[in-house]
């Protein structure tokens, strides 16, 4: 079966509403987590054209780089460090309009201007995070939060 996406233009809500059922179809019935994370990152990057989309997974009390799309990235992040580590520590989604204004921001790419990080939860614990970076300031909002949180809720 061809795994092609139907990429649309329009409002963010319209783009997510078109993309989410396509992502769900890609991951439904696929038991391999790495394959699912890879397809999710590819679909999001292709639809929205963000600088970087990827997952960090908790391993040995660190976030370790997982499947991603974009430039090379930081390999390991400690709990409470940067946006990803803070999202992990607090178990909350963080929307950062200007990464330069975030205390302790880890600059994996100097091109990143704004960021959203969504924790992946399993049995009340964070098992990883979805990290998305944009070259535009203030590129993420409540629409992104809502739909990205829905997507990560499917990862188990």
Sheet having the most strands? 6 strands, antiparallel
Q: Superfamily at the CATH H level?
A: GAF domain
Across the major sheet, the strand order is: 3-2-1-6-5-4
- CATH topology name, in short, is Beta-Lactamase
* Radius of gyration, in angstroms, nearest whole number: 15 Å
Going by helix content, strand content and strand pairing, the class is alpha+beta
Determine the strand fraction and express it as a percent band.
25-35%
Number of helices: 4
Average pLDDT level: 94
Q: Give the overall form.
A: globular
Structure description:
The chain has helices at residues 12-27, 33-48, 82-90, 142-153, and strands spanning 52-59, 62-69, 76-78, 94-96, 114-122, 125-134. With 156 residues, it is an alpha+beta fold. It has a single domain (12-153), classed as Beta-Lactamase (2-Layer Sandwich), CATH 3.30.450. A 6-stranded antiparallel beta sheet has the order 3-2-1-6-5-4, with helices on both faces. Helix 1 (12-27) runs parallel beside helix 4 (142-153). The radius of gyration is 15 Å and the shape is globular. The protein starts with 11 loop residues before the first helix and ends with a helix.
SSE layout and pairing:
Elements: H1 12-27, H2 33-48, E1 52-59, E2 62-69, E3 76-78, H3 82-90, E4 94-96, E5 114-122, E6 125-134, H4 142-153
Antiparallel strand pairs: 1-2, 1-6, 2-3, 4-5, 5-6
